[in-house]
Structure formats: structure tokens, C-alpha cells
Design brief:
Length: 289
């Protein structure tokens, strides 16, 4: 029979091991990513010079300073002010709304789905294959159906975002719920606790690190989903996805690269924000890196 003292000793040993691991982990110096960035920018300049002077296709790989100018102070070829800056930040705002709404739905659906599967093995065997199918099905194959059912505007873009961001929430939450300490689960059974009490007081708190890992991954995928949704459903004020298509079709090299960079930076920012939230929420008890 498992006693409360044994459970407490197990928790103490694991906490000490996590602290030791955290102290021994090597830290990355702040200048190392900057060195890599400088090397990449140098390669970019070399490629831009090659496409400009050798191939005569400067729009394919524009110079980095022209891309930076397109972001900060865009101008027309004749030097007059351009409206690209306004279009860029407006599109970013619309993409942000779609990605966050889709992420919110993915979180709720994923957590509820995983909680249902964690209640019994037969539920997991019945429901988990559909999560895998949803992850593997090509979005392009569902575009006509989604458009016919929900239109070609905001709702369809959100649905695509949910489909792309959902699976990490389902799989990570399920893993966390099933990873609750066996000794503690036996203790709950000995005390004849209800299944709901075991879920709320034991499994869900134990699953929080895994949930935040899935949330961080899904947050990055939600940005991809919002941009992919723009590619397919272009009515009703779409975002960065359509702006990428427009700048590419008009051979606006600096503006195209500027849009891609802003979309990438937004995805990285969302990933880092939710990673920080995970460290603040469970970093004191779990190794969340």
C-alpha cells in the first residue's frame, strides 16, 4: 500500500533532480545567435548581388537593406510614398485575429478531446485515429467542402487554422493526462475518489507541462494556418497570405520578402510568448525549456 509519506518523498526527490538538471544545463551566449544572423545576412547579400548582376533578376533576391526599407519606409519606384506599409500592418492585424481565434478553438477542442480519451482505453482507441486522420488529410482536398459549407471568408480561415493547430494540443494533453504518477493514482483509488476528482486534482495538474508544450507548438502552427487559410479563402479582408500572393504576382521583391519576414517574426513572437507563459505557470515545479 502506498502511503502519503512515500508520495511526499517521491516528489522531493524529483524536484531536487529537476533543480540539478536546470543548474547543469549549458546556457547559450547572447552573441551566438547574432553571429549566425550576421553570416546569414552576408550570404543573403552575396545571393542578391549574384541575381542582380549575373542573372539580371534582382526581384527574385532583393538586397536586405531594400527589404528593411520596405518595412520601415516603403516607397514607389519613383521615390514617392507607398501604401505598402499600411497594407502590411493591416494584413498583420487581420492575420493575428484569425490565428488567435483559431488557436482558442484548438485549445478548447484539444483539451476536451484528450480528457475524453483519458477516461478509458476503449475511448482512446475509438477517438485517437480521427485526430491522426485530421492531422494527415490534405487541407487542399477539403477546401471546396469548407468553402461550400462555411463560405470563403473569416469562418473558413479559422477552420483551417483549427485543423492545422489542433493535433499538438490533443496528443500532448493526452500524454500528460496519462503520465500522472502511478502511486498517486493508486492512492486516489484507495480513497475511493471519483473519476472527476482524479481528473481535476491529479491528472490535469500533472498534465500542465505537456499542455503548455502543446500550446506552444499549436500557437506557432496557428500562424501558419491563418496564412494558409488566406491562400484559399480570399474574401472578406484576408491577411498576410493574400499580401504574399499579390506582391509575388507583381514581382515586388522587397515587399514580398518584407511580408514573409513579418509573418515569420509574428510566428516566432507567438511561440516565445506562449513558451514564457508556460515557464511562468509551471516553471517552478517542472523543467519547461
Amino acid at each position: 500500500m502506498v502511503t502519503l509519506q512515500e508520495v511526499a518523498e517521491t516528489r522531493t526527490v524529483r524536484a531536487a533532480a529537476r533543480r540539478t538538471t536546470g543548474r547543469s544545463r549549458p546556457r547559450v551566449a547572447w552573441w551566438q545567435p547574432l553571429v549566425v544572423l550576421a553570416v546569414l545576412v552576408g550570404i543573403w547579400y552575396a545571393a542578391a548581388a549574384y541575381y542582380d548582376h549575373v542573372r539580371g533578376l534582382a526581384f527574385l533576391v532583393p538586397y536586405p537593406h531594400l527589404v528593411a526599407k520596405a518595412i520601415v519606409a516603403p516607397t514607389m519606384p519613383d521615390g514617392s510614398p507607398s501604401t505598402f506599409g499600411t497594407d502590411l500592418w493591416s494584413a498583420l492585424g487581420r492575420t493575428t485575429v484569425v490565428s488567435l481565434v483559431g488557436l482558442a478553438f484548438a485549445i478548447v477542442i484539444g483539451v476536451v478531446w484528450a480528457m475524453a480519451m483519458a477516461q478509458a482505453k476503449w475511448l482512446e482507441r475509438s477517438l485517437y485515429p480521427y485526430a491522426v486522420v485530421l492531422q494527415c488529410v490534405p487541407i487542399l482536398a477539403l477546401v471546396p467542402l469548407i468553402g461550400a459549407l462555411f463560405g470563403y471568408e473569416f469562418a473558413s480561415r479559422v477552420i483551417v487554422t483549427v485543423m492545422i493547430a489542433l493535433f499538438p494540443m490533443v496528443s500532448n494533453t493526452l500524454f500528460g493526462l496519462q503520465s500522472a504518477d502511478r502511486a498517486q493514482r493508486e492512492l486516489f483509488r484507495l480513497q475511493r475518489s471519483s473519476r472527476f476528482a482524479q481528473l481535476v486534482k491529479l491528472q490535469f495538474p500533472a498534465a500542465l507541462p505537456s499542455i503548455f508544450v502543446g500550446l506552444r507548438t499549436s500557437a506557432g502552427l496557428s500562424v501558419i494556418g491563418a496564412i494558409v487559410g488566406d491562400q484559399f479563402f480570399q474574401r472578406g479582408n484576408p491577411g498576410l497570405g493574400v499580401l504574399i500572393q499579390v506582391t509575388a504576382s507583381r514581382l515586388m521583391g522587397p515587399e514580398l520578402y518584407a511580408t514573409i519576414i513579418i509573418a515569420s517574426l509574428y510566428g516566432v513572437a507567438v511561440f516565445l510568448v506562449f513558451g514564457l507563459l508556460g515557464r511562468l505557470a509551471v516553471g517552478r515545479w517542472h523543467d519547461f525549456s
